[in-house]
Each structure stands twice: as C-alpha cells, then as structure tokens.
Write a structure and sequence with these properties.
- This protein is α/β, with parallel strands linked by helices and 531 residues long.
- The protein has a domain of 242 residues: Spore Coat Polysaccharide Biosynthesis Protein SpsA, Chain A.
- Helices cover 54% and strands 9% of the residues.
- The strands form 3 sheets. Strands 5-4-3-6-10-8-11 form a 7-stranded mixed sheet, with helices on both faces. The protein has a 3-stranded mixed sheet with strand order 7-12-9.
- β4, α7 and β5 form a beta-alpha-beta unit.
Length: 531
C-alpha cells in the first residue's frame, strides 16, 4: 500500500509539474504577444504581479540567502578537524539541531513539503564556535514552558487540543481558560486534570490570555508561554523545535508553523476548497515570505500567529496583551516585540501545528474579516516609527493596497466585458455603454482578461499539487479565484473600519467539527499521500 501511495504521489507531482510549466509558458507567450500587438508594453507583467507579488519574490531571495548562509556555517562547524574538540557529543548535537522536525532522520526535501532540510540549518542560533572550533552552549538547554489554551464554546475540539498538549507536557503545565463558555468546554477540560480558569464575563481571546497569565503568575514561574488555539493540535516535534530556538537568548518569540488540517472526508465541497486554498496560502507565506523575514539579519516578521506560538516570559512581561479597541491580539503582540525592541521573532518549520480551517464560506469571510481588521487596527494603534521593520511593513502595505485595488478593478472590467459579449444587442441600445465596451475590448479583450487573471493563479495551484501530491487540488483550484476576490475586498473594506469600528475583542466561535483522527495522519504534509 505504501508503494502504491508513493508511486501515485510521484505521478501526481510529475503531472502537476508538467502542467504548471506548460501553463506558464503558454501564459507568458500569450501575454508577450498581446502586449506587443496592443502597444501596451508590460501589461502582461501586471497580471503576473497580481498573482505573485514583489514581496514574495524579495523575501524568497532573502530566504535562499538565509539557507545558503546557514548551510555554509553548518559545514564549517562540522569540519573533520574540529570533531574531536567539540564539547557536545555527536549524538547530542544531532538532538540539538535535527530532532523536532516532525519527520524521519534526514527529513523530507523542501520541494516535497517537508522541513528536514530547513530544520537542519543552524543559522538561527548565534555563532557560538569559539577559537579552535569549540561549540559553546547558548541560552537555556530545556526552557520550561506553560501551555495556555483560551477557549470560548469550543466543546467539539477542546479535547483534541488538550490531548495534543498532554502528549508533550505534564498536566500541571497546561492551563485552559474558558472565556464565559456556554457549553461543556470547561467541564471537558476539567476532566483531563489540567488547570482550568473559568471567566464569568466574555473578555475575548486577549483578555482571557491576560487573565490566566496573571492568575497563575505564568511569566514568573516559566521561561516561556505557549499560546495554543482550541482548534489546533501540536506536532510531536513542536516542543523540541521551540526549545531549540529559545536557546538563542535574543529570541523573544517563536512563531508556530501552521499546517492546514487536511481531512477531506469530514468536509463538504466548500470546506475542502477553503482548506486547499489555505494550504496554498500558508505554504507560500511561510516558506517564501516569513522564512526570509525571520532571518536573524532581517527580523521584520509582522505576525507571530496566535494559533500556536511561544513567547519568552521576559518579553511577555513587557507586552501589552489586551489594549482596548483591538479585535485580535497576535498582530499587536508582534508589533510590541518590535516597537519595544524585546528581541527577534524566530520561525522554523520544526514548530508545526495543525489548524482547523473554516467549514463554510460565511465563517471564512468572518474569520478573514477579523484578521484583516485586526491588522489595520494594529497599524493604527502603533503608528509609524523609524525602523527596518516599518520599511518592510510599508512595502507590504503599499503592495497589498495597490494589488487589491488593481485586482478588483480588473475583475470589474472582466465582468463588464463578459456582460457586453453575452448581451451585445441590449448594450447597443445604450450608446454610452456600447462605446465603453468597444474601447475596453480594443485594449483588453475577454480572452486576455481571462488568461491574464486565471492562468497565473492556477499555476500556483499546480505547484501546490506537486508539493503536496494531492491530485484533487487540480479540481479545487478551479474555485480559488472567487476566494481571492473576497480577500481583496476585505483587505480594502477593513481599512476605514479600523479607524471607525469599536472592537472589544469578544469572539463568536465558527462551526467546529470534532476530530476523528490524529493530526499525524494528515498524509499530504510530507508529500507521501494523495486524497
């Protein structure tokens, strides 16, 4: 069965690769020909920009430089002449730098969706090679961590989140805070034997985190605090990966590496499309953007995801967790780290956790709206300050706004051209519309709009099909385009709301589905299985 699965995954990857290359070559040839014929120069490259973005290209290059530097440093540290003089034994060195990748020894290749290749790179640790090649210890070998699980009406999933934490932590190190839940959330948590704090009034996630930290003096009793969402399950290597990164005393926060939970049998068509879309988005953002942004020489990541991340206690004591007027907490906490110069944000793929994506389009829209509003509210709250962080953030903000505007305008033009093509006779009775249709189609025919908008986006889907080896992505990818329209609309819609809406951070849980299998059975993560 494993051989059949391997061969099937390999064939899926090859088909998706061929399709991606063929589509890109076709698109590039079409765009170049159209641009030359219309005399509009680089019009085709505008579509490419809308699909991929300059930020993605920039931070991908930085990430590759990070990998190259880390590989060079690792090679120097492992020189044969220095092996006998190292203070750390070979077995312990492997444990310090390789364990926790969530994959067998050696790991999976980056192109296969695994993290072994990245996790083996040691560049995030400071250069501790003393004269003579002696490797010195840095930071705390085994940082003590408390697990905080804020929850509000999370009865279907809270048990699975606690179980995943108890596989890695003792019961007395897990703290569940039920934020005025009206269901059995607190009772389920209490039956597991972990610490439970029940709040009588709904304070929101940030308020719940603040309350449990204060109630149990967590930042005084532990080296770090892991904040875990109730719909999230930790990978077996998460704790080892987080502790390895915290050995660098300059690290203030360890950003969790989110993996979309892939359980298609538990989802309808809409839920599968959302999960596949999120998987593509997370892969691009984390491997191609945040990996470069969290390099120790850049340190400009603007989000430590609140689903499963660790904050060093010394930094957390300085962070204002629950300021008034914010709908979510993770953007603000990350900005606080940078604004107050508390340290750097570290991220590696060895701190994976599996998150449950929305099951309905309504819940997806509400969730993305909250996230987007929270980002703009955080920008409003902190303002601008001279820093490399804000220079990188400004580049991102400008591109998000411009691409969203251009994308929505292009979609509106495409709809206008489509309507004019279908109802040409009706439009002929309205001279203004008819003239507008003629002018637009002379510049942007319907085929150019369709190919320019859809093909580059679908190329990304083919790449993800190859990485994850899930042939169903080729089908689900046909429905990604409407989701991108919603994302672009919300990115712009929430800008004025960030200055006008009053938020108290209170939450209403989306539709949840209880877990029926272990997250370790999410086969596509290491590129080993299909659907």
């Amino acid at each position: 069965m494993r051989i059949v699965r391997f061969v099937g995954g390999l064939l899926t990857g090859l088909v998706a690769l061929v399709l991606a290359v063929a589509l890109f070559v076709y698109w590039f040839d079409f765009a170049s020909t159209m641009a030359a014929a219309a005399g509009v120069g680089a019009l085709g490259y505008v579509f490419l920009w809308m699909a991929f973005g300059l930020n993605l290209l920039l931070w991908t290059v930085v990430g590759l430089i990070r990998l190259a530097e880390g590989g060079a440093r690792a090679a120097l540290r492992r020189r044969p002449g220095d092996r006998g003089r190292a203070r750390v034994s070979a077995g312990r060195a492997r444990q310090r730098h390789l364990v926790g990748a969530g994959a067998p020894a050696g790991g999976a290749a980056l192109a296969g969706g695994g993290d072994g290749a990245v996790a083996a790179v040691e560049e995030d640790l400071p250069d501790t090679t003393a004269p003579g090649g002696v490797l010195e210890e840095t930071g705390t070998e085994d940082a003590t961590l408390a697990v905080v699980i804020p929850a509000h009406n999370e009865e279907p999933v809270i048990g699975a989140a606690i179980s995943s934490a108890l596989r890695l932590f003792a019961r007395w190190d897990v703290y569940v805070v039920s934020d005025s839940s009206g269901d059995a959330t607190a009772d389920i948590a209490a039956r597991t034997g972990v610490n439970v704090l029940e709040l009588l009034t709904n304070r929101g996630k940030a308020g719940a985190i603040e309350a449990v930290i204060e109630e149990f003096s967590l930042t005084e009793n532990y080296d770090g605090v892991l904040i875990l969402d109730a719909d999230t399950e930790l990978d077996a290597g998460y704790v080892e990966g987080a502790r390895r990164q915290l050995r660098d005393p300059g690290v203030a926060a360890v950003a969790g590496f989110v993996v979309s939970e892939w359980k298609p049998r538990e989802r309808g068509l809409v839920g599968r499309v959302i999960s596949a879309y999120r998987d593509r988005l997370y892969f691009m953002l984390q491997y191609f953007m945040r990996f470069g942004q969290t390099w120790r020489r850049t340190n400009v990541a603007f989000i430590v995801p609140g689903f499963a991340s660790v904050y060093r206690s010394s930094a957390l004591r300085e962070i204002t967790i629950n300021p008034p007027g914010l709908v979510i907490e993770d953007f603000n906490m990350t900005f606080e780290v940078h604004r107050k110069r508390l340290g750097r944000v570290s991220m590696r793929p060895d701190t994976k956790a599996y998150s449950q994506d929305p099951f309905t389009f309504r819940d997806y829209r509400k969730q993305v709206g909250r996230w987007t509003l929270g980002f703009w509210q955080t920008v409003r709250r902190h303002g601008v300050w001279p820093s490399v962080f804000w220079a990188a953030l400004a580049l991102y903000v400008v591109e998000v706004v411009l691409v969203s505007v251009l994308f929505l305008v292009t979609v509106a033009i495409a709809v206008f051209v489509l309507l004019g093509t279908v109802a040409g006779e009706a439009m002929a009775g309205a001279p203004l519309l008819a003239d507008g249709f003629t002018a637009v189609t002379a510049f942007l025919p319907l085929t150019a709009l369709a190919i320019g908008l859809l093909v580059p986006d679908y190329v990304l889907t083919c790449v993800m099909t190859m990485v994850r080896r899930r042939p169903s992505y080729l089908f689900y990818g046909l429905f990604f385009f409407p989701i991108r329209i919603v994302d672009s609309y919300l990115a712009l819609r929430m800008i004025p709301r960030a200055w006008t809406a009053k938020s108290d951070g209170r939450w209403s849980s989306p539709t949840r589905v209880s877990h029926k299998e272990s997250p370790k059975d999410t086969r596509g993560e290491l590129g080993e299985g299909a659907d």
